[in-house]
Amino acid sequence: MIRLLKYAKKNQIYAYIGAVSKLIEAVFELFLPIFLARLIDRGINQGDTRYVLQMGGMMLGLSIAGFIFAMICQYFSSIASQGYGTELREVLTKKINTFSHKELDEFGPSTLITRVTNDVNQMQLALAMLIRLVIRAPFLSIGSIIMAFYISPKLSLIFAVLLPVFALMLGLIMWITIPLYKKVQQRLDDMAQTVSENMSGVRVIRAFARKRHELNRSTENSEQLSKANIIVNNISALMTPSTTLVMNLGIMIILYIGAVQTNNGASFQGEVLALINYMNQMLLALIVVANLVVIFTKSQASASRINEVLDTAVSIEDLPESSITDQLTDTQGTSAINFNQVSFDYGKKAAKALDIINFTVPVGNVIGITGPTGSGKSTLVQLIPRFYDVTEGSVTVFNQNVKNYRLKTLRNLIGYVPQKNTLFRGTIAENLRWGKEEATDEELYEALKIAQMDNFVRELPLGLYSPVSENGINFSGGQQQRLTIARALVSKPKVIILDDSLSALDYETDYKLRQALKKIKNASIIIVSQRLSSIQTADQILVMNNGIIENSGTHEYLLQESETYQKIYKSQTEPESIVLKEEKE
Ligand SMILES: Nc1ncnc2c1ncn2[C@@H]1O[C@H](COP(=O)(O)OP(=O)(O)OP(=O)(O)O)[C@@H](O)[C@H]1O
């Protein structure tokens, strides 16, 4: 947790001002009972009205000054803690943005969201409490004891007896509750994960009539969270009555002994009252300390989760500056992409997703990739922009190993349209400019034209500046696909990869789009598709099966030579033949 405090540095001056203001307020608070004692003992008891007014005025002054310093603290600690939260969120988001697909797969989106939101909020709260209470609470409890001894060393011995009893009680409650708070935090995480999955998958849940099942899952999570919270709250709730009991016991003893001593003339009424005040101050401050420990325990859990993200080694990064080959010398040469003996697995324990892959994409060629589901098509194309790194072998783009490129340069060379693509809330133009911020409207329309979307956008009342809802849900599946293709084309990439991104288009649009792509000068195109009509005119088609390239060649060649290709072809031209075959079997 302390490690993360370095992100509060920018706002540390506000934190110091806040803490010092709170300390000054505590000093004022500490002096109030003394003035009260004097007011009673010398003012009221001796009928000295002037003294009463003097002391009353002092007390009022101290209270007002305390209030002002408390407000100053509140103001500056808010600035410091909010600034800290903003800084932490920014650092975390930056780090997550450097993650390769491997790290993103390992964490999963829900937990990353919880870490950037809930965990950062918890840290923010911890800093605010640190500024407001960490100095003030111990100062008040120790200060109260000293002041009590100053007033009456004899009566203050009661403090010495009660203090350990009180500390023991708080310690016991904390000892039981702290592990439980950790459990609650874990349950909260499970809950956030379920809610996030349910919200993002609400349409699928409905489509599969899984509402009841998902509701049960949420209820179960919610019940577990509530159970854990009830246990911890019940135990924590003991804190108030038990501490009040000790406090009242202390007050009774002070009152009793104080009364006897006052009768004997050994003490004054005001002093007894001041002692009771100090007793309250001390014990309340100790309760605050106990609550602080709870807050810091929760924050410790949040801090470890934030640190886990910050400490994660990023598997795909730019090489040291000296080894980077950023200058592209040969985009007109012979080979746009080359896979040399490439193997890949998603983790040491996972089976090989790709096994000894060799192929070349000559500049300006169109390559089709097909094969049964799970055969490794998407995995293969994701190695080109280095979303994952090969386990063995090498991938080159324009004769340079992809690892030698600056990631930004490599990804600017490639227009990649993934299978699951997303549009973002904003306007069409904002979405399209992701590839090139300074692109003109003309350039955007150029890309839209290739994607067969220009007429549609021109006819919209707001044209390029029409709104796009979250995930682009105000567009049909096919329109979304065409917009995401246009987005990839705006930067005029030299390599275009369409990973099953034509699936929602009708045959005519699919055909026109591919024809328009072919006209882009020197662009090398890879089309991954199960639909053979989308790739049958390609210069070369790779047929994948079980992570290997089973066969490759033109459509005509594969129809003769590849059993897998024939099967796919048949399933699309004569689907009934497959049904009949299955029925016979
Ligand atoms: N992120 C991932 N983590 C672990 N394994 C994965 C991951 N993505 C894919 N795989 C596995 O790798 C293999 C190849 O998957 P891939 O997505 O490349 O197939 P595909 O041919 O593109 O399939 P489809 O046509 O269904 O999209 C599959 O066995 C799959 O389970």
Automatic annotation (TrEMBL):
Protein name per its UniProtKB record: ABC transporter ATP-binding protein
Origin superkingdom: Bacteria
Membrane topology: Multi-pass membrane protein
Regions annotated as coiled coil: none
Domain ABC transporter: 337-571
Higher taxonomy: Bacteria, Bacillati, Bacillota, Bacilli, Lactobacillales
Molecular function terms, GO-annotated: ATP binding
Keyword field: ATP-binding, Membrane, Nucleotide-binding, Transmembrane, Transmembrane helix
Annotated ABC transmembrane type-1 domain residues: 17-298
Compartment annotation: Cell membrane
Keyword hit for rRNA-binding: no
Transmembrane segments: 12-39, 51-72, 133-151, 157-181, 235-258, 278-297
CDD domains according to UniProt: ABC_6TM_Tm287_like
